[in-house]
Specification:
With 387 residues, this protein is an alpha+beta fold. It is built from eleven helices and five strands; from the N terminus they run H-H-H-H-H-H-H-H-H-E-H-E-E-H-E-E. Strands 1-2-3-5-4 form a five-stranded mixed sheet. Its EC number is 2.7.13.3.
Length: 387
């Protein structure tokens, strides 16, 4: 609708300009022999400008009608020193066909540039010397050629603008997909972290609650100690979850980033009742943050499994070198009566989470149970691993 109003306005302005030129008998000193504005001239002027109102829908017909009316005005002796309407119609034709297939494009170019020769022929048939107005005709030819070039350049600019807009939309869509993927990965990470943290705490609470139930009558002080441990573990778990959520939000939370956190984790399990023997030498390297965090979580899950499924003891060995950190956790795991000898397949969400963390860093995780011993062994490379 906006374009239609614009085209109507352009047609009105072209008609007004054409009538004005005819009314003043052309530019400069009026030619006494020129024909003045009359009904026929006004009608031809209207016929030359009216097609501009539909130049976007039928550019070829609009140009042909406008050009024919302008040539008729000149052939009848009207002083049309500037064919404004026809020049605008030529621009519309060039804009529509400059990007068309080769045959249609050449035909449109010939039509635009044939206007001036048609005017020369009209002058010649009406008795006007073409050589006397050669300069004016050459100027008109340059104008119409420039109109074609301008329309073609404007078309190319519009195409580049459309391509840039399409590219911007694709970039925005790709960014949106990346944000959705990042959000999905973040949700997976949150679920894994919550499982590790809350699962560890709940298992410790279960062990201590069972101990308190068994000791409440024969050993009340020990039962109270177990209940106090439950309270402490629950309080620590809430704080750990808060720290984890902060870390997931800004990636700068309170996350174990040094091997000393492993010693603190072992101490917590000892307090909760798990007999842990630990071979934890002083580290000779500074672990990247991601490796330290993965080692912490793997050890946490392994000790939780030992407390939950074993008889209450575990052995931890952690070794550092310039390329790897190795975590080895073993605990007694008596076989059920009637179980077949040999390796036993093990699995579960906790073990899957440990394996995913190790593989993510390019490491390995071995989990198995042989000779009534459950073993978790993780090897995490840290040389060149991005933190």
């Amino acid at each position: 609708m906006k374009r239609e109003r614009t085209d109507l306005a352009v047609a009105g302005l072209a008609l007004a300009a054409t009538l004005a030129i005819l009314a003043v008998r052309g530019f400069g000193t009026p030619d006494p022999a020129a024909r003045g504005l009359d009904a026929l001239g006004a009608g031809l002027a209207l016929l030359s400008a009216a097609p501009l109102a539909v130049r976007r829908r039928v550019p070829a017909i609009g140009y042909a009608v406008s050009a024919a009316a302008s040539v008729a005005l000149l052939a009848l002796g009207y002083p049309l020193d500037a064919p404004v309407a026809t020049a605008v119609a030529a621009y519309g034709l060039a804009a529509a066909y400059s990007g068309a297939p080769a045959a249609r494009r050449r035909l449109a170019l010939v039509a635009v540039n044939a206007f001036v020769p048609a005017v020369a022929l009209a002058y010649q048939t009406s008795g006007v010397s073409v050589w006397a107005i050669a300069t004016e005709l050459l100027a008109w030819e340059a104008i119409f050629l420039g109109v074609w070039v301008a329309a073609d350049r404007n078309r190319l600019r519009s195409l580049r603008l459309a391509e840039a807009q399409a590219y911007a939309r694709r970039v925005a869509a790709d960014a949106e997909r990346e944000r959705d993927l990042a959000a999905a990965q973040e949700r997976t990470r949150i679920a894994r972290e919550l499982h590790d943290s809350a699962g560890h705490a709940i298992n410790v609470i279960l062990v201590q609650a069972g101990a308190a139930r068994l000791l409440q009558e024969r050993n009340p002080p020990a039962a109270r100690t177990a209940i106090e441990t439950i309270e402490e573990v629950a309080r620590d778990t809430i704080g750990e979850i808060d720290r984890m959520v902060r870390a997931l939000r800004d990636d700068e939370g309170d996350v174990p980033a040094d091997p000393g956190a492993l010693d603190e984790l072992i101490t917590r399990h000892r307090v909760s009742g798990l007999a842990v023997t630990a071979d934890l030498p002083a580290p000779t390297v500074t672990l990247p943050r991601s490796v330290a965090w993965t080692a912490y979580r793997i050890l946490q899950e392994a000790l939780t499994n030992a407390a939950r499924h074993g008889p209450g003891s575990a052995a931890v060995a952690v070794r550092f070198d310039h390329r790897h950190v190795e975590i080895d956790v073993t605990n007694p795991a008596p076989r059920p009566a009637g179980a077949n000898p040999g390796p036993v397949a093990v699995g579960g969400h906790g073990i899957i989470g440990m394996r995913e963390r190790a593989v993510l860093l390019g490491g390995t995780l071995e989990v198995g149970m042989t000779q009534e011993t459950f073993r978790v062994r993780a090897v995490l490379p840290h040389g060149g691993v991005p933190a």
